[in-house]
Design a protein that fits this description.
The protein folds into three domains: 71-256, P-loop containing nucleotide triphosphate hydrolases (Rossmann fold, 3-Layer(aba) Sandwich); 277-307, no CATH class; 322-539, Nucleotidyltransferase, domain 5 (2-Layer Sandwich). Helices cover 40% and strands 19% of the residues. It is built from 21 helices and 20 strands. The strands form four sheets. The chain has an eight-stranded mixed sheet with strand order 6-7-8-5-9-10-4-11, with helices on both faces. Strands 12, 13, 14, 15, 16, 17 and 18 form a seven-stranded mixed sheet that branches. Strands 1-2-3 form a three-stranded antiparallel sheet.
Length: 544
């Protein structure tokens, strides 16, 4: 990408890059840890060569402003914990406050929650308090989380020339709780731990915060997360695409350090690969202790891999691998399956959760599926910034029910339509709250509805078959965005005999699995019809 930048007239100037390094070295002091507190902030080699030298050293000519401006206006840095993220983020904020030469500058530490926004900001305030030069020239208001910078010598020079003082530079912590409008007209925004940002309102507002600034910067720094619907994962994937050359964006800087899926989590080479500060901030011996402790449980090992190796997390006991699910996508519509035989699964929800109807169509030696979802309007409004409901509504996968509850009449209409459109044989249903709708389907519309006990014994066989079909690419889906989202956090629980069933997230969790539960119940109908009675009910489950 740098070669392309040079072809288009961009250049690297060591003097500008060095200005940031010298600012850190001369005016910023570390304040945490007995071995570092009070010492100048000397950038580690990777921080300097891999991140800050290119970030502050690359320039381009701007015809509109008739002056050079920095090449990068957006940066995404992703490294594991204990690699010095907080000092890096605070240094960026302090530099734009006091070292970049901006007049009337506005700098923000941003996060989705006020407490998170205050972490980096608190780090910046402590660094300023530890620096005699900055401490003399900055006023800190801890109650408003505001730092004001106005050096006395600049004031005197400006007053002598133009008879007025220069505008103050301000560094403030903001969050979505306080309102995204506070981030307007910024020359720098530092976004800390992007993986815990919930919602998009603040992030999207910050995209329009720099209209009047010459060389602005949105600097995001984070550890890997576990939500593939998040802003953080979007930035993670975008950074990888830019680094690989799949996307040409000369103004975006991306840096990701992580272990690859095939790397041995207990190998020291893997640790060094993911942790650029290993041996400097955290020792190899301490990393070994954390790994040994993590091995005592599956959840501990997953946490180690996410926070120490920067692998994006998955749910406990995941049923499906993303690569297997994605490989099963196929182009077809409901019209392509008209009059074909199918079997249904109906998973009704509590008032605030989605409900789902799944249809499974035998197709040669495999199957195809169609799935529809319903969601109450109140839930939609509450979580629309965190989940891509709008996209799924627009694409036809999701229907919104007015008010606080699911409108069962809409679901009933869809099932009756399915009977008319396809050769719908019968529907398996979760008995929870389903008595009224299944009675109407049976008595009014002649649709056979069969109760599916929500036990691990009943779920075990079709759940294993569902997974097997997807691994073998025998169960096709038509790019249903909501179903794909649910596949990323579909997990199971097992009994003592290692029989597994899907387990729904805790009440209130926005991550749901209704579409897959309905699909598994529909698949169980096919097994039952093939043998006359489910083989699992005939002989029970075998234990090996």
């Amino acid at each position: 990408m740098d070669d392309l930048a040079i072809e288009r007239g961009y250049w690297f100037d060591q003097r500008f890059a060095g200005h940031f390094r010298q600012f850190c070295r001369r005016f910023l002091c570390l304040w945490e840890g007995r071995q570092w507190a009070g010492k100048p902030f000397e950038l580690l080699d990777w921080q300097w060569y891999d991140v800050f030298a290119p970030l502050f050293g690359w320039y381009r000519w701007d015809d509109e402003w008739s002056c050079p401006v920095r090449r990068f206006d957006r940066a995404y840095v992703e490294v594991p914990k204990k690699n010095g993220k907080s000092p890096m983020a605070a240094a960026v904020g302090c530099y734009f406050l006091a070292g970049d030469g901006e007049t009337g500058g506005k700098v923000f530490s941003a996060a989705s929650a006020r407490e998170q926004a205050g972490i980096v900001h608190g780090h910046a305030m402590a660094m300023i308090r530890s620096s005699p030069w900055l401490d003399e020239r900055c006023k800190i208001n801890r109650s408003t989380q505001t730092i004001v910078f106005e050096p006395p010598e600049m004031f005197e020079k400006a007053k002598a020339k133009i008879d007025r003082a220069p505008s103050q530079n301000v560094y403030k912590a903001i969050s979505s709780e306080a309102g995204p409008q506070e981030g307007r007209n910024a020359n720098a925004v530092v976004c800390d731990e992007l993986h815990v940002w919930y919602g998009r309102k603040l992030w999207e507002a910050l995209q329009y915060a720099f209209e009047t600034r010459l060389s602005p910067l949105r600097f995001a720094i984070t550890t890997a997360g576990d939500d593939e619907q998040s802003v953080c994962y979007e930035q993670h994937e975008y950074a990888r695409d830019v680094r690989r050359g799949h996307v040409q964006d000369l103004g975006f800087f991306g840096y990701v350090r992580a272990a690859d899926p095939e790397d041995d989590s207990g190998d020291e080479r893997t640790w060094f690969k993911a942790n650029p500060s290993l041996g400097k901030i955290i020792t190899v011996g301490r990393m070994r202790e954390m790994y040994d402790e993590a091995q005592k449980s599956a959840s501990g090992l997953r946490s180690f891999e996410r926070y120490r190796l920067n692998r994006w997390g998955t749910v406990a006991n995941p049923l499906l691998r993303p690569e297997d699910w994605d490989a099963c996508q196929n182009e077809y519509t409901a019209a392509d399956l008209r009059e074909k035989t199918c079997y249904g699964g109906l998973d009704l929800s509590k008032s605030e959760d989605p409900s789902a109807l799944a249809l499974i169509f035998p197709d040669g030696d495999g199957y195809r599926q169609l799935v529809w979802f319903w969601l109450p309007q109140e839930t939609y409004e509450r979580n629309r910034e965190r989940v891509r409901y709008e996209d799924w509504v627009r694409e036809g996968w999701l229907e919104i029910c007015p008010g606080p509850r699911i409108d069962e009449e809409l679901i009933e209409q869809r099932i009756v339509w399915a009977k008319e459109e396809f050769s719908l044989q019968s529907v398996h249903y979760d008995p929870y709250r389903a008595h009224a709708i299944v009675k109407r389907l049976d008595e009014t519309h002649g649709i056979e509805c069969i109760e599916f006990p929500q036990t691990i014994t009943r779920f075990a066989g079709p759940t294993a078959e569902y997974e097997s079909l997807i691994v073998r690419r025998k169960l096709r889906h038509n790019r249903n965005g909501c179903l794909t989202w649910q596949s990323r956090h579909l997990k199971t629980k097992a009994d003592a005999n290692k029989n597994e069933r899907p387990v729904k997230p805790a009440r209130g969790d926005i991550r749901t699995i209704d579409g897959h539960v309905a699909s598994i119940m529909a698949l169980a109908l096919i097994e039952t019809e093939d043998v006359g009675e489910s083989i699992y009910e005939q002989r029970g489950l075998l234990t090996i």
